[in-house]
Design a protein that fits this description.
- Chains A, B: Keywords: FAD, Flavoprotein, Oxidoreductase.
- 2 copies of one chain form a homodimer.
- By secondary structure, chain A is α/β, with parallel strands linked by helices.
- The first copy, chain A, folds into 3 domains: 13-65 and 181-291 and 429-493, FAD/NAD(P)-binding domain (3-Layer(bba) Sandwich), CATH 3.50.50.60; 70-177, no CATH class; 300-419, Alpha-Beta Complex (Flavocytochrome C3, Chain A, domain 1), CATH 3.90.700.10.
- Helices cover 29% and strands 19% of the residues of chain A.
- Chain A has 14 helices and 21 strands.
- The first copy, chain A, has helices at 34-45, 61-65, 79-83, 90-101, 107-127, 180-194, 247-253, 272-279, 322-332, 345-348, 351-354, 368-374, 381-393, 476-493, and strands spanning 13-14, 23-30, 50-53, 70-71, 149-150, 170-171, 198-200, 203-210, 216-223, 226-238, 262-263, 284-285, 290-292, 306-309, 339-344, 360-365, 415-419, 429-432, 435-436, 443-445, 451-457.
- In chain A, the strands form 5 sheets. In chain A, strands 1, 2, 3, 7, 8, 9, 10, 20 and 21 form a 9-stranded mixed beta sheet that branches. A 4-stranded antiparallel beta sheet of chain A has the order 14-15-17-16.
- In chain A, a hairpin with a 5-residue loop joins strand 8 and strand 9 (216-223).
- In chain A, helix 1 packs parallel to helix 6, helix 1 (34-45) packs parallel to helix 14 and helix 12 (368-374) packs across helix 13 (381-393).
- The first copy, chain A, is elongated, with a radius of gyration of 24 Å.
Chain lengths: 497, 497
Amino acid sequence: MNSSNKTSPSHPRLSSDINHWDIDTDVAIIGFGGAGACAAIEAADAGAKVDLFELASASGGSTALSSAEIYMGGNGGTAVQQACGYSDDTENMLSYLRACFGNQADEAKLRSYCENSLNHYQWLTGLGVPFKMSELKERAIMALTDDCLLYTGNEKAYPFPEAAQPIPRGHNLEIEGDNGGPLLMKILTEAVADRGVNVHYESRALTLIIDDNQEVVGVVVRVDQEEINVRARRGVILCAGGFCMNEEMVRKYAPTFDCGLTPIGNPGDTGSGILMGQGVGAATVNMHECFVSLPYYPPSSLTYGILINDKGQRFINEDCYHGRVGYNTLLEQRNSKRIYLVTDVAGYGDYEKMSYLGAQVAGTGDTIEELEGELELPAGSLDYTLSSYNRHAAEGQDPSYHKSAEWLRPIEAPYVALDCTLGRGPFYPFFTLGGLDSLPTGEVLNTGGEVIAGLYAAGRTTAGIPRTASGYASGMSVGDATYFGRLAGQTAAKRDC
Amino acid sequence: MNSSNKTSPSHPRLSSDINHWDIDTDVAIIGFGGAGACAAIEAADAGAKVDLFELASASGGSTALSSAEIYMGGNGGTAVQQACGYSDDTENMLSYLRACFGNQADEAKLRSYCENSLNHYQWLTGLGVPFKMSELKERAIMALTDDCLLYTGNEKAYPFPEAAQPIPRGHNLEIEGDNGGPLLMKILTEAVADRGVNVHYESRALTLIIDDNQEVVGVVVRVDQEEINVRARRGVILCAGGFCMNEEMVRKYAPTFDCGLTPIGNPGDTGSGILMGQGVGAATVNMHECFVSLPYYPPSSLTYGILINDKGQRFINEDCYHGRVGYNTLLEQRNSKRIYLVTDVAGYGDYEKMSYLGAQVAGTGDTIEELEGELELPAGSLDYTLSSYNRHAAEGQDPSYHKSAEWLRPIEAPYVALDCTLGRGPFYPFFTLGGLDSLPTGEVLNTGGEVIAGLYAAGRTTAGIPRTASGYASGMSVGDATYFGRLAGQTAAKRDC
């Protein structure tokens, strides 16, 4: 909204100032991660001419860096769910997601996602994405085997079973090791190529182009150190990721998370898509929220332990998802100077071999008193907490925090405590969950809640299904990006122009 | 950013579409609360022709509804602080405010505010705002006597004394009862009138007017059911309050607070100033944060009690500010189904006579066990918490939460507990703390961080000094609105045009 001539996301270029269109296409897509790939496939399948611009020299985005678990279910269940003996109901899936995100949820997106999730599974398998008809029954962050189905969120953890019947919905690709992301992007990239999409690598989108009616009619891209003007007759789809790599934006919009966390994503997650959208009047929502995790498992045996704060109090059921624990330690326990995980030798188990948590041993003790002293907890506090926990655990009960009986057993001497305090060793990864305000169709809204003609977005450039780490489940972000990427591609391709 | 013809904040009017200017002025100010009044006074004093538009039929805004405590200090201290024996240091005040808001703070605004707070005090007294040279030494939310100086925040409460020397900075006007707001606005309104400002009541600002360079050159106002075009040669200052009365905006931008709280403010706090700013590309920040309070004192004797959650755990030092307690109960204790205040007969004191909390008695007991049963707490939990608290309180200690010795004494049978759970009776007021991104000068920034020519804002239309309820102190919002209102008026009046 400024007359400066420089090319920046906040200064859309006016089509009346453009003498020459370097590229003339139907749909221009910015970003070749999971969202952009799916948008390109659908737009091409709908008959549109598609040009896809990617900053890096290869496709992938943050999807390729992830495990590419995909959260799917509903409508009776995917073939994998059914093969593993689960019947999944759309309303049950919807109830679960509502419980995850409360009044932060986008009801229209949740409903679209749940109603069409089975179709999305079939679309992915139709492209050749392989899922084995098997379940990984361990508590894990991702499947390191080639097994598919996994509980990837809080489905079985209090209080979620009160809201919805627990069903596993995390679908891991059929490949050994943590290699789902590269495989998914390889398949999607081939599908894009098969459709004759014009892919431009090492091409940085700079700003949108608008006409006199404020409609988005193209995008300025820098290729080989030159700015080129791309005319997009049906629209531009922003799939440029989130903003966790943009320190200034994190500080400005998500200051709670500007505290020494480790951003996870690709270097292009600088919020450029969000900034370009804002530059043409788009609203942003949920900008203050991020995914954050305290990945205290594997080994899953640490789930038998208890998390305590600097008062020696427990504060959460330790069988919930690592993101929920990360959120809780970072936000709800923000006034606690220490976070410890207290366990015993059996619980500690293969920690040193299997974990990527990075937490150091903060103390050990043959007695509770000894450990309490080493951890500098208020006198008697750990004794009260641990004795009470053990007494109930022996009976398979956790009346205060409702950890499920599966993970309850008394913690026996000798004791060991890991220092899970942020800044004292442990890995606290984060990425952003806020972005452009958009409809399920991918249409981007202005601050008055109206559609901006010609502008679409998907993936972490938007605020999508996942709204908080507290309710997050692995697979929600790749699921959201791929599903709503498809819808954005469909919508843009069929726009009258 | 849309070609629709309707007049809404999201659709700025183009000056090229305007045939006739109904009013031609230097500075147009929207909103006649504390911020707008101070902006008008300064702009007029700088020689500008000023037109002030107010939705209501009288001045006042939310400032007139408040107690109009004003948070001031630094530079050795105000005359009142000095008369009461306090010497206040600018850096100490700055350290305190930094501790209050952490990395959510706007450092430039904090510095400007602290460095010029003494000057602001003198400016106010120069206008005739009366402050008595006296201190109210009670723990209170506002002075109901005509006394002036009061600790209105967390200055004396842990952990703030670790960051800054505690100094009272809440300045109450010299008037009996909770009547500071009306008196302040009466004085400011007279000062506006004395300066020949053209005041237009019952005048609703609809949208901004921009020229071809995207500069703000005026505002469309509805008066007597007609739209009039106001040309503002030096600029428009938005002082239209926050958005706590706009349910849709609260749900969209501050969903955490969309949970049955009671909005406090005037009916015009619908976010219209924020929406108009957004309509011309302004950035918004801190939109997810609100002031929220659990006003559990008066009577101050309840501070001798302890706040506990549904696990029977304490979670905060009960001598802190009511807003910090409100924030903590609402956010950090969000997973607790109950919040109780446990006290004894002496602590309960004049609760029924003095309080406006509205909390009901949840249980009583001649023994801890009896109360624990009535409150349905985990067996032994209250016994552990209260016994531990009492043992330390008898020694003037609170090793876990650091409540100051002043408020420590053992809680003696018979016991009583108030149900402070949101939704079960108690008053949880809230108002918004997010708004347009602006410089201390009042200049509004676009999403690229650049100044939008011709646009200014102050008060709760902006994100100002107070950024969270957790660090709030009474007097910060009126202090911020009046001080930065003045700066916006000065800046706009001297703009070259």
